[in-house]
Amino acid sequence: MGIGAAVVQRLANQGHLVFIADRDVDAARLTAHNLSSQGHNVRTVAMDVSDSSSISHVFAEIEKQTGRCDILVNSAGVATVASFLDFKLEEFQRTMDINVTGTLLCSQHAARLMVKHHWGRIINIASVAGMRAVGKGRTAYGTSKGAVIALTRQMAVELAEYGITANAVCPGPVDTPLTQKLHSAQFRQEYAKAIPMERYGSVDEIAATVEFLASTHASYITGIAMPVDGGFLASGARGL
User: Fold this and answer.
1) What is the pLDDT of residues 131-178, one digit of tens each?
2) d(CA 44, CA 226)
3) Rounded Cα distance, 89 and 68, in Å
4) What does the alpha-carbon distance between residue 59 and residue 51 come to, in Å, rounded to a whole number?
5) Any idea what DSSP says for residue 128?
6) Residue spans of alpha helices (H) in 2-126
7) What is the pLDDT of residues 45-70, one digit of tens each?
8) Residues 94 and 143 sit within 8 Å (Cβ to Cβ)
9) Could you tell me if 191 and 148 are in contact, meaning their C-beta atoms sit under 8 angstroms apart?
């Protein structure tokens, strides 16, 4: 759903064989069906990024079916909003397991396949919340996305010799099922005021950035955290 589905559409449009790996198999199959009806080559696999054995199984299946993995987009993520003083340990650990450890493990498996062909693109969906505190209640989410950015830099340094790039896309507020659930009307209004473009982004705007970083045109770009945020990070006190 959301950014992930938009990314799949973009990459499928470019002629890539795309595997949709999702815990929600029904949602994945629906997206795959819609893309297949457009003539695209899309497959679905059930994967839970919080389960290392599930990840291993999926990449073994991908290798069996295709013998390679050229592009990996890590877009699975969760968020829980609660005050810092009351944030539950189990929720913090769950967020880190999915947002950070899941990204690590998927990237390791994909990179091992990429090394064989001396080419690859890893794009991690991080967030401006990993670069700046975005309101209250994001103890786990912001921390996890900051970790994803740091992990991306480490991967970029270690994988460059194999022809593999690793970059992070850092969306500002985007209209997705997750933000529609987490962001109240008041929060949306205040957030929009802090953005020079005065609006939320679209999933397609994020997917377009992913598409570029996954392309041959981005061959000399690695280790960056690219904000796609309507100017949010660049802005200070607006209205002065």
Assistant:
1) 999 878 899 999 999 999 999 999 999 999 999 999 999 999 898 877
2) 28
3) 38
4) 13
5) G
6) 2-13, 25-36, 52-66, 89-96, 102-115
7) 999 999 999 999 999 999 999 999 99
8) no
9) no
CB 135 within 8 A of CB 192: no
Three-class secondary structure of residue 70 per DSSP: coil
Instruction: Work out the burial of residue 136: count CB atoms within 10 Å of its CB; fewer than 13 is exposed, 13-18 middle, 19 or more buried.
Output: exposed
How many residues comprise the chain? 240
CA-CA distance, 109 to 182, in Å (whole number)? 32
The token pair that represents 232 in the structure block? 């949010």
Return the residue matching tokens 């679905």: 44
Crossing angle, helix 139-159 and helix 89-96, to 10 degrees? 30
Residue among 141, 162, 191, 200 flagged as catalytic: 141
Q: Assign 237 a pLDDT band (cuts: 50, 70, 90).
A: low
Catalytic residue check, 191: no
Q: How far from 127 is each of 109, 138, 168, 184, CA to CA, in Å?
A: 23, 12, 9, 19
- State both tokens at 3: 């950014």
**16-33: pLDDT as tens digits:** 999 999 999 999 999 999
Q: Which residue matches tokens 């990314």?
A: 7
What pLDDT, in 10s, does the model give residues 83-130?
999 999 999 999 999 999 999 999 999 999 999 999 999 999 999 999
Q: What strand order describes the sheet that includes 120-125?
A: 71-74, 120-125, 164-171, 225-228
Distance, CA of 71 to CA of 106 (rounded, Å): 11
